[in-house]
Amino acid sequence: MAQQIPIDPQARADDPAADAARGDQTHALAPDLAYRRLVLVNVVFVGEPGAGDRGWVLVDAGIPGSAPAIRAAAEARFGQGARPAAIVLTHGHFDHVGVLETLAREWDAPVYAHALERPYLDGSAAYPAPDPSVGGGLMARIAPLYPTSPVDVSDRLKILPADGSVPPMPGWRWLHTPGHSVGHVSFWREADGSLIVGDAFVTTAQESAYAVATQAPELHGPPMYLTLDWPAAAASVRALAALKPERAITGHGRPLEGPELRRGLDALAQDFERVAVPEGGRYVEHPARAADGSAYRAP
């Protein structure tokens, strides 16, 4: 049975009092790094407050219906009418691209993603079906209801460069962290030890509706019901732990920082197979991978 790595609540990376005083509807992790929680997923804003038009980047694009909340946070943080330089994706699952088509069109913004995610973003392939048999919580049981169909932003889609750079995010590098999806990436800024990890690991038991609601900080592997390749997921977590990050913002749960983050991430990496991997399940027994085409279904 998969387990959690408990985390001291004091390790949370945001400051609720400072966030409330700033009043831009986001939670800040660093002067130019903030996030907003949208029901069950986080979106990330990269850029200094007041950065203005094209002076910032949106990482991931929320759940369906979240466009007004993302717009409001962007305008409050960056200025009236401030559009992003780009929308950058960790991966293309429904809760990370819910309003991607809407915002990319409205903002006339390019969309950056890994080459292996392209079929999910140009309308040509759907994700494999979720596995409701793993995780045990309500969020896992209702996983068959989650959309797996692709979006189509082919006219704006740009593939992340092979050299690891992120053109609209100077100072950041992308790292291929597959497992949860074949083209999943995380973003790393070595200068201050900041990580944006998407769903490579998360800080809440995403399978559980109660945990999603309470947001008690815990280290977990990627959400089980949508993870396609557990050996790849384990390797990704170990690569991220080796970076010894100062702070990490995940797609689900509260951001963490400092020694407690590193302790928890090391524990998760060292014991991933026992702590994070379900005892059985469709993708434990038969991983879905890009190499053999099993990660892509007809839309």
Automatic annotation (TrEMBL):
Higher taxonomy: Bacteria, Pseudomonadati, Pseudomonadota, Alphaproteobacteria, Hyphomicrobiales
UniProt name for this protein: Glyoxylase, beta-lactamase superfamily II
Region (Disordered): 1-23
Biased composition (Basic and acidic residues): 11-23
Superkingdom field: Bacteria
SUPFAM superfamilies: Metallo-hydrolase/oxidoreductase (SSF56281)
All copies of domain Metallo-beta-lactamase, residue ranges: 40-252
PANTHER family, per the entry: METALLO-BETA-LACTAMASE DOMAIN-CONTAINING, METALLO-BETA-LACTAMASE DOMAIN-CONTAINING PROTEIN
Segments forming a coiled coil: none
Name of one Pfam family that matches: Lactamase_B
CDD domains: yflN-like_MBL-fold (cd07721)
Gene3D superfamilies in the cross-refs: Ribonuclease Z/Hydroxyacylglutathione hydrolase-like
